[in-house]
Design brief:
The chain has 9 helices and 13 strands. With 359 residues, it is an alpha/beta fold. The structure holds pyridoxal-5'-phosphate.
Length: 359
């Protein structure tokens, strides 16, 4: 029996996708070899890759003047690549610090150039966000940077700032395809695939083509987005297995109502848990209710002892991954696209039962 998986990443995958992978791992679609044994220069891989990219474009309505491809190195490599490419001499990059992931991106950028922090959530312990309408790029801004959903703190931008001619760059590792996004508002969207899109290994890059005109000169090969755009991510060996998984997850999303379907499901699933949290003083959400994440629900109990008991009893009931990140403590339930609705109902019921016994 499969356990219920609330891990933050790597995280739950649709069981249908795992079964498709099992089915095809030895002999890919009757071709007589596995997709992970085939050259990335050969037809087998490229056919699969092109299909993956076109499904991605279709699901997110990515306009033609954007490049889409996958790289290795995780979302973390982008913390370096973004300023290396776009933080040009004499310019300043505008960063918001809203939690672990944007803080890391910001500190890497600070090592590489001039950074203006337009919002720092430190004083609120990263539990709130700026009103997007108040966000204005610096004069001389190279780009404005934000993390759409802070996976660890459980906080999510609901609307995005209008940055005019200054490119907006967003890390969407943990909420990609959980809601519609107007890609045109962004110069670049990227993320690791291991939260909402597939097995760990690949990082998706969606970048408006004219961004390449703004980049620094004399970049080393792997650091240069122009090279990756030209080679659609195949300059060096791509993370083949991960990309294959992403292709299957994207097709699964398409079969399940596309982004609109995932959006409705995310609303329904997260409401089940937030309704419990809001129903009594036993539960507490530290996050500003306007910006609570639908993907990563962070919550607290009256004591750390009760939190430890919650995790222990949940684990015994085959519910995994509910311990909060070590940096923030408490509890966290990640409700990614692939987490079945029934598993959220099971968590809700477990919570209500736990409250009855311990409240
Ligand atoms: C997990 C995560 C990262 C880091 O991803 P890696 O692929 O491990 O480098 C960055 N940003 C966000 C929002 C994440 O959730």
């Amino acid at each position: 029996m499969r356990k219920k998986n609330y891990f933050a990443g790597p995280s739950v995958l649709p069981v249908e996708v795992l079964e498709e992978m099992r089915e095809n791992i030895v002999d890919y679609e009757g071709k007589g070899l596995s997709i992970i044994e085939a050259s990335h220069r050969g037809g087998l891989f490229e056919e699969m890759y092109d299909s993956c990219l076109s499904t991605f474009r279709e699901l997110l309505s990515i306009p033609d003047d954007y490049d889409v491809y996958f790289l290795g190195g995780g979302a973390t490599l982008q913390f370096t690549m973004i300023p290396t490419n776009f933080l040009t001499p004499g310019k300043v990059a505008d960063y918001s610090k809203t939690g672990t992931w944007s803080n890391k991106a910001c500190s890497d950028a600070q090592k590489l150039g001039n950074v203006n922090v337009f919002f720092d959530g430190k004083s609120s312990n990263f539990t709130t966000l700026p009103d997007p309408a108040t966000v204005k790029p610096s004069e001389n801004s190279a780009y404005v940077y934000l993390c759409a959903n802070e996976t660890i703190g459980g906080i999510e931008w609901k609307d995005f700032p209008d940055t005019g001619d200054v490119p907006l760059i967003a890390d969407m590792s943990s909420d990609i395809l959980s809601r519609p996004v107007d890609v045109k508002k962004f110069g670049m969207i990227y993320g690791g695939v291991q939260k909402n899109l597939g097995p760990a290994g690949a990082t998706f890059i969606i970048m408006r083509k004219d961004m390449l005109e703004r980049r620094n000169e004399n970049l080393t090969a792997y650091m240069d987005y122009a090279l990756h755009a030209k080679e659609k991510g195949l300059y060096n060996t791509p993370p083949v297995f991960s990309i294959w998984g992403v292709k299957l997850v994207l097709e699964w999303i398409k079969r399940n109502g596309g982004v609109a379907g995932m959006d409705a499901l995310a609303e329904k699933k997260s409401s089940l848990i937030y309704d419990v949290i809001d129903s009594s003083d036993f539960w507490r959400s530290p996050v500003d209710s306007r910006y609570r994440s639908r993907m990563n629900i962070v919550f607290r109990l009256p004591s750390e002892e009760l939190e430890a008991k919650f995790v222990k009893e949940a684990t015994a009931a085959d519910m995994l991954g509910l311990k909060g990140h070590r940096s923030v403590g408490g509890l966290r339930a990640s409700l990614y696209n692939a987490l079945p609705y029934e598993d959220v109902v099971a968590l809700r019921d477990f919570m209500l039962d736990f409250e009855k016994k311990n409240g």
